[in-house]
Structures are given as structure tokens and as C-alpha cells.
């Protein structure tokens, strides 16, 4: 039985790295300049109550002028060749600049970046910073190039079934400012897939699932509620399942509260430094019940958690005494049912902070204090 569990965990291990994983090595950091303006609110604006006057049209009109196309150019000899296009939107004006958020995979590897505004102006953009783990990047252009900025809503306040709009440039700038409508299919979905072709890494990302049409080129554009607030950034969709079955209406957006936190860090420091505990893990729900009993030996009453597949040598987790096959069920008094729960709470902390983990080792329930170190940068 233990061999079967080991094979199962190996299949999902790389998608469950928190700290020190080779999949995150060698990522580039951009720090082109320093800015001093005040950040976007640490917690995005609360989602406003909707009224009968809030329609798809009014929502679109509130955000559309902030939406842009983002063009990635590669240098070829003495000239530049367009490599790809995506979307983005201006979220702030300060100190003569307009700041634009987009996906990291939209601008990854670019030798030059251009932005095409809603009024069809084409301007060269500077890269403020990028974060491959969350697939976010911040650009800046001259503030006079855009006429409006979009406001963030609170993604913690969204609900399944709520109507949303996706705005962007599907298939490129010739279809700029296209809008599609759908609903929120899930407020928090843990996605574990890597797209090697576009250098995206979504391993362990917690995202909003929507059935609003998201096509190539929509990446980086806003997902808005009917109040016209940005509650997510459109990032990817599933077109086929793992067994090759065609899939429709499954798209994903990065939650706005996560976006606000990351863009503030990118504007301030040009990079994101994350705390780490140095483990590889898999959701307890992925382990068959008989192996939970025979290999993990945890009580049958434990309904959720994450199983440690590996504890990295010299890591905070190892120093705290955590071991392979321990099952983490809580962090700082909050329940952990899966990787998304653990990551969400962990990344609220800073390097050097101490966290309290609750876990099972066999039938024994234990708590331990872990001091976070710095091993993840992107």
C-alpha cells in the first residue's frame, strides 16, 4: 500500500511545492526604477450593492476605456517582430504615469512592449515588474495615453452564479475591447497545470472559474461584475481535459484581492519575495481511503488536509520537526482542507514571521511553530 501512495504522491508533487522547489528556479527579476506614489488599497474596494440600473452595458462602459491591448515584440537583427498579443487595463495614474496590469505570460521574453489604448493610441511601455508564480506583470505608460482607470472590487465578496463580463482583445487588437458574458462557476478553484509553451506556471494557483468566453488574446484583461468593478484578471481556459475530451466554458481568472497585493509589491520593489516552509505536498482528498488508514494511519474523522510528500533538508519545516506523511490540517487556527487553503494563509505572511501549524502524525494531533524563511522569488 505504501508503494501505491508514493506513486500517487509523485504524480502530484511538483504541483504542491511550497518553498525550495526546482520548478521555481532561475526566474528573472525586473527592477527598472523606483516609484514613490501610494499603493492601491491593501484590500481592494468592497463590492458595491447592485441596483436595477446596473446592466451589462453600464458595467462595460465603466471599465472599457481602461482596457488596452498589450503587444510583445522580439528583436530580430536590427528590427522588432511582433511575437504575441494579450490584454491589460490601467488601474492607476500617478506621477505622470498610468500603471497597467497584465499577465506575465503576455510579456514574458519581450524585447519591447507596446500598448494599444482604447482610443487606438500606440505607445511603448516600460516593465515595472513581473511575477511568474501568479502570472502577473505591471507596465507603465504616459498617463495622457489613457482616459480612464478601472477600479478593483473585492473578490472575497463574489458568489457562484453571479453574472460577470470578460473584456479584452481575443485573437489580437483587431478585436480589441470585445466583451463576453457568463457567470462565476466557482469562487476558489485550485488549478494544477503548467503551460510549457507560454512559460505560465499555475501549479497550485487559486483562481475564479467562469464560463464567460476567454480566448487567446483575452489574457490579462479584466473580469468585471455588473457594477463595473474588476474582480479578476482573465488568465487561461481549459480546452481539453486530461484524457483529451473537448471542454467548453471553463475559464479562469486571478482574484482581484490577490492582484492588488501583488501589483503593490511589484510597484514598490519590482519583485515578489515569498515566505517558504520547504515542503512538497498533495491534497488528502487525492489519497484513497484505505491508504489514509493503512499508510497515513490518521483518524477516519479527518476529512481534509495536505499530506507532506517531502520535507526539504534544512528547511523551516524540517527544523520544526515535520516529517514525510504528516497531514497538515490547520494554520494559525484556520482549517486547511487543501493546498489552496495553506497557500492563501501562508502568503499573507512575511519572511521571518512565525506560523502555527496543526497536523496529524498517525492518530496523534500536534501543533508546531515554524519560522518562515526566504526561498521563493519571482
Structure explained in plain terms:
This protein has three domains: 2-23 and 272-377, Roll (Pdz3 Domain), CATH 2.30.42; 28-45 and 65-145, Thrombin, subunit H (Beta Barrel); 155-269, Trypsin-like serine proteases (Thrombin, subunit H), CATH 2.40.10. It has 378 residues and is α+β, with helices and mostly antiparallel strands. It has helices at residues 2-12, 56-63, 104-107, 256-269, 289-296, 316-319, 339-346, and strands at 17-18, 67-76, 79-94, 97-102, 112-116, 122-131, 136-142, 163-168, 178-191, 194-195, 200-201, 205-210, 222-224, 230-237, 251-255, 273-276, 279-283, 306-311, 327-331, 334-335, 354-361, 364-371, 373-377. A hairpin with a 2-residue loop joins strand 2 (67-76) and strand 3.
Instruction: Tell me roughly what share of residues is in helical segments.
Output: 10-25%
- Number of E-state strands: 23
Sheet of most strands: 7 strands, antiparallel
What name is given to the CATH topology of the largest domain? Answer: Pdz3 Domain
CATH architecture of the largest domain: Roll
* Stretches with pLDDT under 50, minimum 5 residues: 8-17, 20-38, 193-203
Protein name: Trypsin-like serine protease
Organism: Fructobacillus ficulneus
Domain PDZ: 286-363
Keywords: Hydrolase, Protease, Serine protease
Entry keywords:
alpha+beta; protease; 15% helix; Pdz3 Domain; 3 domains; Peptidase_S1C; 6-stranded antiparallel β-barrel; Thrombin, subunit H
Amino acid at each position: 500500500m505504501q508503494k501505491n501512495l508514493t506513486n500517487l504522491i509523485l504524480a502530484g508533487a511538483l504541483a504542491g511545492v511550497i518553498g525550495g522547489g526546482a520548478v521555481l528556479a532561475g526566474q528573472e527579476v525586473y527592477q527598472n526604477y523606483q516609484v514613490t506614489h501610494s499603493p492601491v488599497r491593501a484590500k481592494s474596494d468592497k463590492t458595491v450593492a447592485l441596483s436595477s440600473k446596473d446592466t451589462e452595458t453600464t458595467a462595460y462602459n465603466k471599465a472599457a476605456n481602461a482596457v488596452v491591448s498589450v503587444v510583445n515584440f522580439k528583436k530580430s537583427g536590427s528590427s522588432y517582430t511582433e511575437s504575441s498579443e494579450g490584454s491589460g487595463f490601467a488601474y492607476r495614474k500617478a506621477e505622470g504615469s498610468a500603471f497597467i496590469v497584465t499577465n506575465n505570460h503576455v510579456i514574458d521574453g519581450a524585447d519591447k512592449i507596446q500598448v494599444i489604448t482604447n482610443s487606438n493610441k500606440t505607445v511603448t511601455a516600460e516593465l515595472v515588474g513581473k511575477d511568474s508564480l501568479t502570472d502577473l506583470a505591471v507596465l507603465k505608460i504616459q498617463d495622457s495615453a489613457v482616459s480612464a482607470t478601472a477600479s478593483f472590487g473585492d473578490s472575497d465578496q463574489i458568489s457562484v452564479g453571479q453574472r460577470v463580463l470578460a473584456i479584452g482583445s481575443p485573437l489580437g487588437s483587431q478585436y480589441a475591447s470585445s466583451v463576453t458574458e457568463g457567470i462565476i462557476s466557482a469562487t476558489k478553484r485550485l488549478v494544477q497545470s503548467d503551460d510549457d509553451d507560454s512559460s505560465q506556471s499555475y501549479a497550485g494557483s487559486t483562481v475564479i472559474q467562469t464560463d464567460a468566453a476567454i480566448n487567446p488574446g483575452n489574457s490579462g484583461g479584466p473580469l468585471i461584475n455588473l457594477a463595473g468593478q474588476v474582480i479578476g484578471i482573465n488568465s487561461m481556459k481549459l480546452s481539453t481535459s486530461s484524457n483529451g475530451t473537448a471542454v467548453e466554458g471553463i475559464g479562469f481568472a486571478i482574484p482581484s484581492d490577490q492582484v492588488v497585493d501583488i501589483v503593490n509589491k511589484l510597484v514598490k520593489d519590482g519583485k515578489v519575495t515569498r515566505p517558504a516552509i520547504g515542503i512538497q505536498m498533495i491534497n488528502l482528498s487525492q489519497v484513497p481511503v484505505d491508504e489514509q488508514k493503512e499508510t497515513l494511519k490518521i483518524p477516519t474523522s479527518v476529512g481534509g488536509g495536505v499530506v507532506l510528500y517531502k520535507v526539504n533538508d534544512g528547511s523551516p519545516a524540517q527544523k520544526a520537526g515535520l516529517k514525510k506523511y504528516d497531514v497538515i490540517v490547520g494554520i494559525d487556527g484556520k482549517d486547511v482542507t487543501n493546498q489552496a487553503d495553506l497557500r492563501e494563509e501562508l502568503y499573507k505572511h512575511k519572511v521571518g514571521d512565525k506560523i502555527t501549524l496543526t497536523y496529524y502524525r498517525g492518530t496523534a494531533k500536534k501543533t508546531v511553530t515554524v519560522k518562515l524563511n526566504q526561498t521563493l522569488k519571482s
